[in-house]
Recover the amino acids of this structure.
């Protein structure tokens, strides 16, 4: 009897231990893997296996032909960085994809080393590359013939409905903290209007805190823009700005007062756009920088607005994050949730200028180490949670980046609130890469295959799917995603459009209806993810549209 009772206790202990292991396996977790060699202050996924990082041309430890590299190709399979060879300095630039799949990096700065050229009005190209290790692939630049109309440091850029790039704002040269030499205009690549930039009343009104404006292509082809604490809808075709309600409570969200923003997922059949803006500060932009402190509290405010006549009339709906955040970033997840990650709880963006920089360099302090999940369809007041979320011990403050990968996890890199590479200060230059893994990364997952290379708008197409037995019959969501270009607390061109889908009778293929036109999803690269219940597949890469170079004509049907 005693022996059987003892055996029962052993069996019970083993069962509890097994459940504990399973619970640990199926939880959110951070995993550190590899070092970047350069500060990954800009990042973009360019294939299933490759990401590109950019930093400033200065003194990063990764070398390229005997000098410090400022571009790197990151292998997502091996977690190894190899140097890229840009010609000009890409520091604090922006970028996105064009309709033909080419990645474009725009703007930059005056370099610190002679091997780099002035990047402020330059354009860098990465053409679609099929080799999983990037062999034979490289950046292309032709500064003499392919360049911007204006010098731009700290610009933003987005892909718009005709597959071209809209480039917004920035400054002409390095100015201390505030933007005192602004480029208060928009231009396009390929150029429109004979290459003459379009003046922007919004950017002119929002000096001096109007760098890296937050912009999103809307499903009717217009563009939402937030700059400082003001917002507009911009009609690209009519060159007309329509002013929207200001962000409440004087909260400012563009550099050097970086909050973040995202276009929430678009659902058929109406694709009604909603904007979410989080973090930043309600500090006045008229206070001299030498009076600001690294200990000034950031804002915990999130503001959300539906961009319909009724939604605009109602204005912004306010909710609160679990902590204040300066320089956070929001990442769309394939199931429609949003991850809020990175940043600091006090201070400001930029470096060295406030009255009490931390370690003589950082304008911000008190890093936010624990990500939160924002659930858009939850009731107000119950949308933000960090339950079950892990905590990192790596500060990700100024010059950090983060992006979703093809596998469905988040790659987190960078952080350098210093003028140059610095290793002996509290917030040192950071080269370690972390992956934030959702619980499904350790589960048996749906798998997609045989997706078309190119997908026409307003069409039906087939994708093969394998669904694990335990998930069959579960709720299914099919997401079409642009993973975006991460730089300075903002994900340029980030987008999620849900698509209608029907599972075949045998459960082995999906019939999917693509977005109705190139305004709902601007033509260009995309990933398709399928989520069954809470388990998301790896993504499959496709090209939306006919793959033509921009500008492309309207495709599909207008809604």
């Amino acid at each position: 009897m005693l022996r059987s009772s003892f055996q029962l206790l052993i069996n019970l202990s083993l069962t509890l231990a097994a459940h504990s292991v399973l619970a640990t396996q199926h939880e959110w977790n951070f995993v550190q893997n590899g070092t970047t060699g350069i500060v990954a202050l800009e990042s973009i996924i360019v294939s299933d296996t490759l990401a590109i990082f950019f930093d400033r041309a200065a003194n990063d430890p990764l070398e390229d032909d005997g000098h410090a590299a400022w571009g790197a190709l990151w292998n997502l399979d091996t977690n190894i960085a190899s140097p890229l060879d840009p010609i000009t300095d890409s520091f604090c630039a922006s970028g996105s994809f064009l309709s033909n799949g080419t990645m474009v990096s725009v703007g930059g700065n005056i370099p610190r080393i002679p091997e780099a050229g002035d990047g402020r009005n330059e354009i860098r190209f990465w053409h679609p590359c099929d080799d999983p290790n990037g062999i034979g692939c490289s950046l292309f630049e032709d500064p003499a013939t392919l360049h911007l109309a204006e010098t731009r440091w700290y610009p933003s850029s987005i892909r718009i409905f005709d597959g071209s790039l809209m480039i917004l704002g920035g400054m002409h040269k390095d100015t201390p903290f505030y933007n005192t030499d602004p480029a208060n205009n928009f231009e396009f690549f390929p150029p429109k209007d004979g290459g003459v930039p379009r003046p922007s009343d919004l950017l002119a009104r929002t000096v001096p805190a109007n760098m890296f404006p937050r912009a999103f292509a809307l499903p009717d082809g217009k563009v939402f823009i937030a700059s400082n604490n003001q917002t507009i809808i911009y009609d690209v075709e009519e060159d007309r700005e329509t002013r929207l309600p200001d962000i409440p409570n004087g909260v400012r969200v563009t550099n050097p007062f970086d909050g973040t923003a995202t276009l929430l997922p678009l659902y058929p059949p109406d694709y009604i756009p909603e904007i979410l803006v989080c973090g930043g500060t309600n500090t006045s932009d008229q206070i001299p920088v030498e009076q600001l402190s690294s200990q000034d509290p950031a804002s915990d405010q999130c503001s959300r607005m539906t961009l319909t006549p009724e939604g605009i009339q109602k204005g912004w709906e306010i909710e609160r994050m679990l902590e204040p955040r300066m320089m956070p970033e929001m990442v769309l997840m394939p199931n429609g949730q949003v991850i809020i990650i990175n940043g600091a709880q006090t201070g400001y963006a930029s470096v060295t200028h406030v009255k009490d920089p931390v370690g003589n360099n950082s304008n911000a302090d008190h890093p936010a180490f624990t990500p939160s999940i924002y659930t858009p369809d939850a009731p107000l007041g119950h949308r933000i949670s960090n339950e079950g979320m892990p905590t990192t011990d790596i500060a990700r403050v100024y010059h950090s980046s983060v992006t979703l990968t093809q596998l469905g996890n988040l790659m987190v890199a960078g952080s350098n609130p210093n003028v140059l590479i610095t290793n002996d200060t509290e917030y040192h230059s950071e080269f370690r890469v972390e992956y934030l893994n959702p619980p499904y990364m350790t589960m048996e997952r749906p798998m997609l295959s045989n997706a078309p290379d190119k997908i026409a708008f307003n069409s039906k197409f087939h994708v093969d799917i394998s669904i694990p037995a335990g998930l069959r019959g579960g709720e299914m969501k099919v997401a079409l995603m642009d993973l975006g270009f991460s730089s300075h607390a903002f994900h340029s061109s980030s987008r999620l459009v849900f698509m209608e889908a029907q599972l075949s009778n045998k459960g082995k293929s999906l019939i999917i209806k693509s977005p109705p036109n190139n305004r709902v999803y601007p033509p260009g690269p995309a990933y398709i993810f399928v989520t069954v219940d809470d388990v998301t597949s790896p993504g499959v890469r496709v090209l939306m549209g006919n793959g033509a170079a921009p500008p492309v004509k309207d495709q599909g049907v207008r809604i």
Notes: Helices lie at 2-25, 201-205, 309-314. Residues 185 and 199 are 4 Å apart (CA to CA). The longest strand covers residues 524-532. The two ends are 75 Å apart (CA to CA).
